[in-house]
Write a structure and sequence with these properties.
Elements lengths: L18 H16 L21 H10 L1 H12 L4 H18 L7 H17 L8 H15 L7 H9 L3 H7 L3 H17 L4 H15 L3 H24 L8 H14 L5 H16 L2
Helix pairs in contact: 1-2, 1-3, 1-5, 1-13, 2-4, 3-4, 3-5, 4-5, 5-6, 5-13, 6-8, 7-11, 9-10, 9-13, 10-11, 10-13, 11-12
């Protein structure tokens, strides 16, 4: 299965929207991710996946709590603020998120990745930007993202040091290639395979991401063995036809249950799926 490269998706017209609408669509993307089942190991409206500390109601509450911060990030982007200012908004967002979830880390990764895209959408509204929002993230803030020392005790920082993977920071600095080269084309393919079933398209994109992404959450929970297990299962699902088969949901459910049994949760891929859904709204 092949997907087009990022360059093949350009030129792209970015729709100009006000910060309030950008914030609303960021929350919508997070909630659509929750309302997707079966996503291997992940929380959904059906079950809690491999998570004992969170459920769909908590994730929905977390997403709605973050809306003012996505708006603030879009406003900061519109005034061309630097990474230090965006980071401060992100830190405030994380504190509010943890207050709302009683300390549970529901959306920290999304605050970073989706937050940068919200800032890019705000900036794009002030200029004639004719490329993906991810490319704008890389051009405007990529250097600062890479040059900041990673947080020593974060899961992403631990995984980056232990397994020599770039993680969310490298993804953002490169223009979000997993969003544009993997998730977006897989969403389109899922819609062709299961016409009229948006949930199926989201499952297809999630599987496509799991098949290739060095997901920090998988590596943190289970190391390379767990990552390879997850990749093999997702690749087999796609090779068998993905959501184009009549019984695809049963197969995806079996994979989901296998992930839960091994305590695997590809949270990074969940964030990337939400980011892909967000960018679809603003790019044509």
């Amino acid at each position: 299965m092949t997907f087009p490269l990022l360059a093949e998706l350009s030129p792209i017209t970015v729709k100009h929207c006000d910060p309030a609408l950008i914030g609303r669509h960021a929350v919508r993307a997070l909630i659509l991710e929750v309302e997707t089942w079966p996503k291997p190991g992940l929380v959904s409206h059906i079950d809690n996946g491999a998570h004992a500390d969170m459920d769909a109601a908590l994730l929905r509450r977390s997403a709605r709590t973050l809306e003012p911060f996505f708006i603030a990030l879009a406003e900061a982007g519109a005034t061309d603020m630097g990474m230090d200012h965006l980071r401060q908004i992100g830190m405030e967002a994380e504190k509010t998120m943890r207050d709302a979830t009683v300390g549970v880390n529901t959306h920290r990764g999304a605050i970073f990745g989706l937050g940068l895209l919200a800032a890019a959408a705000g900036l794009a509204a002030t200029c004639d930007w004719q490329a993906p929002l991810g490319a704008l993230v890389a051009q405007r803030w990529g250097h600062d993202i890479l040059n900041r020392t990673p947080e020593h005790d974060s899961h992403g920082g631990i995984v980056a040091r232990r397994y020599q993977v770039g993680g969310a920071r490298a993804e953002a600095a490169a223009g979000m290639p997993s969003v544009y080269d993997i998730a977006r084309p897989a969403l389109a393919e899922g819609r062709r395979l299961a016409m009229g079933d948006e949930e199926a398209a989201r499952v297809h994109a999630c599987m496509a991401l799991i098949a290739v992404v060095d997901d920090s959450n998988l590596l943190y929970r289970a190391g390379p063995e767990g990552l390879n297990f997850a990749r093999d299962k997702a690749r087999a699902f796609l090779a068998d036809g993905g959501v184009g088969r009549a019984n695809w949901r049963w197969d995806a459910k079996a994979i989901h249950e296998a992930f839960v049994a091994r305590n695997l949760s590809p949270g990074g891929c969940a964030d990337l799926l939400a980011m892909a859904l967000f960018t679809e709204v603003f790019e044509s």
